[in-house]
């Protein structure tokens, strides 16, 4: 799969882990480790998009392409939209958004998402995996997605959807057999045409209530196709404990 661009939004602000993108992992900043993993995909370019001069300097020091973007973006998608404009990407270009706190991201998953976009005439794609645990389904921190028969998202919610009325009336500790429950994974691919128009899309009421940015696209009538994977990708880094886990992994498995 060729011809797509990976963009990694990175900003220093983090309430739980200050200066997270610059956290050292095996002698390199985390954002550099993410870029190195993304570079193992078939992407034609891997670009870090940041609003901080320290992140920019760290990327340049390690040979990672970086763009300095505005500091007033409310979301990573807004930052991607600026990158698409700065690079003057053609409307049909595919941009994969890889989070800057996922140093264990699987390059093959990046390729799968880009290939899905190339094969389907859709403006946006994302990833999900099946949920098998009822506690996970009822956890509002776990975002669920319901799909149509073509694999497109019908809705994303923090609520337990789809809701098995009769089964859950009897027992909410078990998922009934065959219930199609999927956990959304926050990895996205976009057509540049959508990014070019994103700034004109007003925030949606559903997006604001659920605190889920992707609902803006559905609200405005854009299709989101979903790549379903068998297992959850490795968790990103949100806490000091996550950072310790990733550092231990790199120490045990990787060098350089």
> How far apart are the termini?
27 Å
Please state the oligomeric state of the protein chains shown. single chain
Structural class: alpha/beta
Rg over alpha carbons = 18 Å
Low-confidence segments, given as residue ranges, are none
Percent of residues in β-strands: 15-25%
Question: Tags for this entry?
Answer:
single chain; alpha/beta; two-stranded antiparallel sheet; 10 helices; 3-deoxy-manno-octulosonate cytidylyltransferase; cytoplasm; nucleotidyltransferase activity; KdsB; Cytidylyl_trans
Describe the overall structure.
Activates KDO (a required 8-carbon sugar) for incorporation into bacterial lipopolysaccharide in Gram-negative bacteria. InterPro entries: Cytidylyl_trans, KdsB, Nucleotide-diphossugar_trans. This protein is α/β, with parallel strands linked by helices and 256 residues long. Helices cover 33% and strands 22% of the residues. It is built from ten helices and eleven strands. It has helices spanning 30-38, 53-61, 76-86, 107-119, 134-137, 165-170, 192-198, 205-210, 215-219, 240-253; strands at residues 4-10, 24-25, 28-29, 45-50, 65-68, 94-97, 124-130, 144-147, 153-157, 182-191, 224-229. Strands 1, 4, 5, 6, 7, 8, 9, 10 and 11 form a nine-stranded mixed β-sheet that branches. It has a two-stranded antiparallel sheet with strand order 2-3. Strand 4, helix 2 and strand 5 (65-68) form a beta-alpha-beta unit. The longest helix has 14 residues, at 240-253. The radius of gyration is 18 Å and the shape is globular. It starts with a strand and ends with a helix. The model has no long low-confidence stretch (mean pLDDT 92).
